[in-house]
Structure formats: structure tokens, C-alpha cells
Write a structure and sequence with these properties.
The chain is mostly helical and 151 residues long. The protein has one domain. It has four helices and no strands. α2 packs antiparallel against α4.
Length: 151
């Protein structure tokens, strides 16, 4: 099933982000700066793809407007309520429509999860770079206080 494969893709991307974040601690500053820049570009591109996909999804969902800016919990609650209501219906056409909507929602949730993983990777790498900056400033202050030369 395509959704299962998409979910596997999200899991693989999360593992990749975890590995890169763990490796960031041992990277040279210039390498980490490059990775942060790359992760930011990737996160921005993924956010753009998510916006484009949401627009396409909305058109396919026959007028059902998906508001990505709404809180995720509200979105989940509404989707589940609709799914539960439609589950009780026995009409074949309505059941197929409900299945289409459920698949559309699942695909959107996977896209959202993937985007969150990409953004989380960027945030972790950027945090590590900020920690390096803080250490560098502290080292410079220590050298100045000890009568050392600053660069």
C-alpha cells in the first residue's frame, strides 16, 4: 500500500535526522555550518512541497478545505469525528468516499510528519551551532580576562 510506503519513508527520514544530529557534536564548525545551511534549505523546500501538496489535496478532496495552520490536535479531532460518523454508513458510494477522504487525510498526516522531521533536524543542527558559538564567546572572554590576546 502506498501510504505504508510513505510512512516507512518518514521513519527512515527520522532515523537519518537522528544520526546527523548525533554526529553534529563531533563536526568541525565549518562542516556544521554547511550542514545547518543545507538542512535549512531542505526544510524550506519541504515546507514548500507540503504547501503545494496541501493545495492539490484540497482540490482532490472535492471542496474539503484542509487548514494546515489550524492546530494539529483540532485537525485530528475533526478528522476522527468525520471518519467515525461515516464508518456507520453502509452505502457503498458513501463508504468509498469515506475511504478516499481517509486516505487523503493519511497522506496529509504523513507529509506533515515528514516536514516536522526535516524541521526538527534543522533545529537540532542549528542548536548545536549556537552551542559552539556560545563556547567560542566564553573562550574569548576567558582569554581576555586572563590577559590573553583576542582575535
Amino acid at each position: 500500500m502506498a501510504l505504508s510506503a510513505d510512512l516507512a519513508k518518514v521513519a527512515a527520514r527520522a532515523k537519518e535526522a537522528q544520526t546527523r544530529a548525533a554526529a553534529a557534536v563531533d563536526k568541525a564548525r565549518t562542516d556544521l555550518e554547511q550542514e545547518v545551511s543545507s538542512a535549512r534549505t531542505s526544510a524550506q523546500a519541504q515546507a514548500e512541497r507540503l504547501r503545494d501538496n496541501a493545495e492539490t489535496t484540497e482540490a482532490k478532496a472535492a471542496g474539503r478545505r484542509t487548514d494546515i495552520q489550524r492546530s494539529f490536535n483540532e485537525h485530528v479531532a475533526k478528522a476522527r469525528e468525520g471518519i467515525d460518523t461515516k464508518r456507520a454508513e453502509r452505502d457503498v458510494k458513501k463508504a468509498k468516499t469515506r475511504a478516499d477522504h481517509a486516505e487523503t487525510y493519511a497522506a496529509l498526516a504523513i507529509d506533515l510528519a515528514y516536514s516536522a522531521v526535516v524541521e526538527a533536524e534543522y533545529a537540532v543542527l542549528d542548536a548545536e551551532l549556537a552551542r559552539m558559538d556560545a563556547a567560542q564567546v566564553q573562550d574569548e572572554r576567558s582569554r581576555t580576562a586572563a590577559g590573553g590576546v583576542t582575535s
